[in-house]
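Narrative progress, year one. The postdoctoral researcher (J.K.) led the effort to move from monomer predictions toward full complexes, under supervision of the PI. The following entry was the first complex the group processed end to end, covering 983 residues in total.
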Amino acid sequence: MKKLLVAASIAMMGLTGTAAADENYPERPIMLMVSYGAGGATDFQARIVTMTAGNEDALGMPIAIINKPGAGGRVGWNWFATQADADGYTLGAYNIPHFIAQSIEGGVEYGADSFEPIANWGADPAVFVVAADSEFNSMADVVDYAKENPGRLTFSGAGLFVGHHIAALQLEKAAGVKLAYIPNNQGGAGAMKAVIAGEVLGGVNNLSDAFRAREAGNVKILGVFDLERNDFLPDVPTLREQGFDIDNASVNFRGVMVPKGTPQPVIDKLAEVLPTMFENGRVQGRMKAGGSPMHIMTRAEVIEMWKAREVTLKELLAGL
Amino acid sequence: MTSLPRTQHVIASGLVAAVGIWVAYLSFTQEPADAFLFPRMISSVFVVLALFTFGKAVLGHTKVGNGLDRQSMANIAPGLIVALIFVFWAAKSLGFYTASTIAFFVLLSLYDPAPHGAASSWIKRIAISAGFLVVMYGLFAKLLNVFTPREIFF
Amino acid sequence: MEFLLYFGDVFTPFNFGLLLIGTIGGLILGATPGLSPTMAVALLIPFTFRLEPAQGLILLGAAYTSTVAGGAVSAILLKIPGAPANIATTLDGHTMAQQGHGARALQLSFLASAVGGVFGVLLLIFLTPVLAQWALAFGPSHLFWLAILGVTVIGSLDSSSVVKGLLSGCIGLWLATIGFDDILGAQRFIFHSSVSGGINVIPALIGLFAIPQVITMFAKGRRRLNAEVLAVERHPIHKAFREVFRRSRALSIGTLTGSIIGLIPGVGGQIAGLVAYDQARKMSPERDKFGTGHSEGVIAAESANNAMVGPSLVPLLTLSIPGSPTAAVLLGGLLIHGIFPGSDLFDTNPDVAWTFSHSMLGGQIQMCIFGLYVAGLAAKVAQVPIAVMGAVVLGLAVFGSYSVQNSMGDVYVMAALGTGMYFLERFGFSAAPLVLGLILGPIAEANFIQGSMIANATSSMGAYFLTGTLNIVLIAIVVLSIGYSVWMELRHRRFITKDDAARKKEALS
């Protein structure tokens, strides 16, 4: 009789969903929220890196992508911070520096401490592009033009308080000039169209998109906003090589996170499994084919990176 | 024409005008001004058109739209109440499939002209509701993999 | 000829099987409320992981063409447009279904879709490099005026009242500003937590079109069955063939308008059907019949929205710029297989590029064949008692709007907008301009802000928005379309009395 009671109470604990449930996690398909539209770079990469989740050696359950686009990612991350269930079945994709910069700027309901990072899968540096027939051939040409025409050098990027905008601010600060940054509401693709069509004189864009546009013969790439040259573009110098003191604060890091309050065993399990999923040979092959640079980081490394970014961005945005 | 549609037109266009004025008020008072530039443009046009429509309704010059007669209102009320309870409360707290099947069955009982006295028509209603449940479950849960709220039942 | 060289590839048994799966899957997904073509193609992308590049694209190309046409099924039978592209189809198509001509409306829509679609794909194949430059000519100021044009054309389309049409457009534009401002990130008009992320277009579309429909069915009350059964007329296919080609004016207006408008990045796909419908109406000697179940309306709208499919891929395939959300998803599908679209795509990867365009041609034709088969079955749907129909539409609307983003807020927005729209419709407002305002509002606003930023940095606002041939042409069309409609309305009033207008309205509802 006593045994039966013990068994019943264990069963009850299982039903109320505490310790017992965590051990069996995951028991049903998982959802990954992407705060950009279907077809965007983040969405596209998220679909590839999660495609092996259903394998037995990974999570054993598929991950489905849910898009919540709008206002440079604010719509999705607001939802994720305030309404998503912290049960381990709702994951979110993060973009650094975007959401940290937005939380510093204010008007949103999240900050770096609203989320728990799991693992990082990619790092896409910003680059400076001009149309193929442009008279600019180096960053020095661009800055010279801006010095002669203060505030009249128009250049596009994927919105305000996203990686591109941070790169633009860094360029203004390092070169000591005033530029006219034109944010686009259709992300990197829209900003690239503005450059190719000649609506603006130049643009900051994602390395992966710019690489493709250059292959198609539409643009020239003048510089990379990163510490080192990139494997996809070994011939393009960094901004630092061209004499501008700019670090990698604008590099777009992409990875997976969960809302604060998710049970620790679930976080541990995800943090252990996800990096191995990203290392899967098929995933790597698809990412390379798509021109998307990978950069796998564990949970501990991502926590460090978030902290460091928050300090740099606060400094950079303080002047605005 | 009776005066019922005319009164209804005044109420309807008055509500639209009130929304317009509210939108315009917010657009011109809220900060940051840059973000409200476009709403200001729209709401100005909105208010002008809405007041014009309201004026026409008050003078009884409205030409289009028949309003609602008493018979339609009586017909709509029960179905609309069931539908609103389903959407705003039952779907979330009972689970999508349970709630929609119940709502489906109730609506069928309310509007299906088959006699309420005969047992055969009730069997038919239950069978159609069950069929509806199966099709919805197959389409959304199995084919499209949508995870709907399940709460109390499923 | 290179064009023909790769035709055989489409007809190997495996590829042909994929084409079949893509087409049938696309028709089913397209007809499901809540699934836009964009989502349907995104859902299929994981299935292409294991396929060869060309095979994956056969699947995606066929699915894209047939989801756009599949949307017509629910637009005609249930008055739920599957996507913004199908809004114009509901105007005459659903009325035809109510009159018992559902099968005929579907047959016409699939035949018109196939004609428009094939023409569009041929344009894509033969004129891509020429068209690419044309597509780029639209900058922020032009896109701003084009979006405004979209709203005013549709606003004045509802010929019963220009003022109320434009007012509906304004309501839609306002609804589009709710939520976060797309560029500056400021919060606007958030009066309830359901709209904190803004109003999502697909649930709004479902609510605005489907819910008034459900309530109208309630309004008919509990009547005897025999009084309500629609006279269902079986419609032989050869008659539909003859009718489509007899209506060659509507067909060619639809096809041409759709092809041209489809090229414009960002705006085209959404308004092609409506603009073609409006043009066909203005040029038709029987313009009074539009909106009362006139076949020209269905033909123009559906030929246009499938004609736009091919050209909408021109900016993608030549410049690597996705012109529409669906094109962006297709770009993802290409990239996964390591194919970078660009002006040299047809040289570097001819097998992929040609197979892709051929699969779209094949898809159009298969879509037509299966669509006609569906149309035969559709006659049965019209026989479903209205009580069952109302309850089914309500259930589909709730599930469909939830499944877009797994969000309960979307369901509330859908129901609230839909209920409000029913009452507005009773007082002469219409849903189409409201939806267009909602769709084009963000495009108009973002381009206005970008344009004014560029203008402030380079020249002046006036010079940027009001000069230049393209700007002036677009402004002229805006002014003329409003002026023409006001004039028509005033002229009409002289010899149509109030009672006539009421009777005409009654016949429509």
